[in-house]
TrEMBL record:
This is Quinone oxidoreductase-like protein 1 isoform X4. Residues 15-305 form the Enoyl reductase (ER) domain. InterPro entries: CRYZL1, ER, GroES-like_sf, NAD(P)-bd_dom_sf. Gene3D superfamilies: Medium-chain alcohol dehydrogenases, catalytic domain. SUPFAM superfamilies: GroES-like, NAD(P)-binding Rossmann-fold domains. It comes from the Eukaryota. The lineage of its organism: Eukaryota, Metazoa, Chordata, Craniata, Vertebrata. It comes from Microtus ochrogaster.
Length: 325
């Protein structure tokens, strides 16, 4: 295949940033020239939303951006200094933001630090489809909130892909899990999880009282860890409809226990002096879960062990990451 050409998918943003065009470009299948890079035959690639705002903030100005970053495949060749992999290894990983190669391509080259070994019983599509949310959940629970046994954890929107993995991660560490459901189907899904979720709070149509339910479940002490899916900063009348089911920031602060950890995905979180004072009195902390924090900081989170998770129908399909000890 040396010297052959192949097609990769890219996107081009208009000058007004209002329209995105997708197109295929020819790429040459070059041999590995960098010492720490791996040549990978892509077997599956997940399509996550393209964060054009973040790309602009990072000054990553290009004519064409590669599409597809979560990949799974077989190692074809390795550079001279690659130590973790060898040809024919099955791997999965997330390409960095500045990757020149699109995941939607037959063969790509990627630094070995962005890959891990794929478990034998996990399919290509399942591996590529779960790695991103697995890393996010691992970051939120292990690195930002320091999850430990017997802690109480509130995971908002637990029926989402991220939420389902986070719930099972928390269960694995022996935590007591509370979650919210945005509709009847989500509620039924959460109630079928084993081991069971301690409490499912129905927030459809804004009828759920998250703070009251959490305080009741914890005997008035509040939860130790909160992982939100966004929060409302103002009254319902002043917020867009998409945030109607989200809890208000005051609800989160109210239900948070002494010494608690609030992990938020709200990038524009605003805390007024009374909010900060309340968090101060509780000795609580606020951490921000940026989807790319592990990537932007260029910090490698070490080797990972893989453990199976279950999807809605009970069939084993996915796994999560745990730092090796």
């Amino acid at each position: 295949m040396v010297g052959a050409t192949m097609k990769g998918l890219y996107f081009q943003q208009s000058s007004t940033n209002e329209e995105i065009t997708f197109l295929f470009q020819e790429r040459e299948n070059l041999p590995v020239t960098d010492d720490n890079f791996v040549k990978l035959q892509v077997k599956a690639c997940a399509l996550s939303p393209i964060n054009t705002k973040l790309l602009a903030e990072m000054k990553m100005e290009k004519d064409f951006f590669p599409v597809g970053r979560e990949v799974a495949g077989i190692v074809l060749d390795v550079g001279a200094k690659v130590s973790f992999f060898r040809p024919d290894d099955e791997v999965v990983g997330v390409l960095p933001l500045d990757s020149e190669d699109p995941g939607l391509c037959e063969v790509i080259q990627v630094h070995e630090h962005y890959l891990v070994h794929k478990p034998e019983k996990v399919s290509w599509t399942e591996a590529a489809g779960t790695i991103r949310d697995g890393v996010r959940a691992c970051t939120a629970l292990y690195y930002l909130s320091h999850l430990s046994p017997r802690k109480s954890v509130l995971i908002m929107d637990g029926a989402s892909a991220f939420g389902t993995i986070a719930i099972q991660l928390a269960h694995h560490r022996g935590a007591k899990v509370i979650s919210t459901a945005c509709c009847l189907e989500d509620k039924q899904h959460l109630e079928r999880i084993r081991p069971p979720v301690a409490r499912v709070i129905d927030v459809s149509n804004g009828k759920g009282h998250v703070a009251e339910s959490c305080l009741e479940e914890t005997g008035g002490l509040g939860v130790d860890i909160v992982i939100d899916a966004g929060v409302r900063l103002y009254s319902k009348d002043d917020e867009p409809a998409v945030k109607f089911q989200l809890p208000h920031k005051h609800d989160i602060i109210t239900l948070l226990g002494v010494g608690g950890h609030w992990v938020t995905t709200e990038e524009n979180l605003q805390l007024d002096p009374p909010d900060s004072h309340c968090l101060f009195l509780k000795g609580a902390t606020v951490a921000f879960l940026n989807d790319e924090v592990w990537n932007l900081s260029n910090v490698q989170q070490g080797k990972y062990l893989f453990t199976h998770l279950k999807r809605r129908d009970g069939e084993v399909i996915s796994w999560y990451f745990q730092t090796a000890t």
